[in-house]
Amino acid sequence: MNVTIAGHGQHLTTHEALSGVFGSISLASWIFLLVPQLIENYRQSSADGISLAFLTVWFIGDVTNLAGALWAQLVPTVIALAVYFCFADLILITQCVYYNAKNARKAARKASTRSEDSVEQPLLGRRDSSNVGLPGSHTRRRSSAASARERRRRASSLPSLVEEDEEASQSAWLKNTLSIFGVCAVGAAGWAIAWRTGVWVPTPENDGSSSDPETPLGASILGYASAICYLGARIPQIVKNQKDRSCEGLSLLFFILSLLGNATYGAGILFHSIEKDYFLTNLPWLIGSLGTIVEDVIIFIQFRVFGIGEHSSAVEA
Predict the structure, then answer these.
(1) Letter string b/e over residues 197-230, b meaning 16 or more CB atoms within 10 A of that residue's CB
(2) Whether pLDDT at 249 is above 50
(3) How many Å from the N-terminal Cα to the C-terminal Cα in the chain?
């Protein structure tokens, strides 16, 4: 089926249109990708939830992707996006390093204060030892009664904590859903505007009559290195989540946008053409994008099982 766009006199096939729309949605997803995590770190004034090893390996993947794009002399828009990704990675890494260093200094000061207080603590303990711990003393009974009251108070507060946790979860999912629809709408609208203004034109498939220049071997190696980095980057984050048994400090929308960007990127390539030569040329990027979807799903499962740690910590208290 062909779709005719008025004013162009060109025919746009369905799979070309879908390839363009998916590619544009993927672009919008990558542009907004790091914003939710930046906001989450700023809101909590902490970056303890995200693994620096994850960000570092991801940054190396973006650097090798940029180097491969430059070597292969890809179109300027691809190179510009690769540069943007590298700068965005650096901003997030810088923010995380800043908060980690800041919070480490705070923890060191608190530890120093506690150590100074502990020097006087034994003297205070001996001073009051005549009134504490005697069999049948009123102090011990008051302490036991206070502990019982505290346990009852915490038990009675658990239902309200559960309700608040459910309400917060529903609100978060609503915001994430609206955000995803917004990104898809921006991507589709961006493609439509680019098509009507002539900025975007469908790339003709290679029918074998023309000989396209082969991708340099070095550029292909960098492409595969980038794919390996993207595949391995999430492993430290998955291990950290499993070790902490919590996803506190992570933005769920960050990983949803990553999943959306990878899925639509792969769909954009496959809708354009499934010819062998074209498929093999884009195989490194397909591996890097579609392969990470499995790891993103694992992180979604961790979000479901572990949550963000607030409810579990309240129950254990």
Answers:
(1) eeebebeeeeeeeeeeeebeeebbebbbbbbbbb
(2) yes
(3) 62
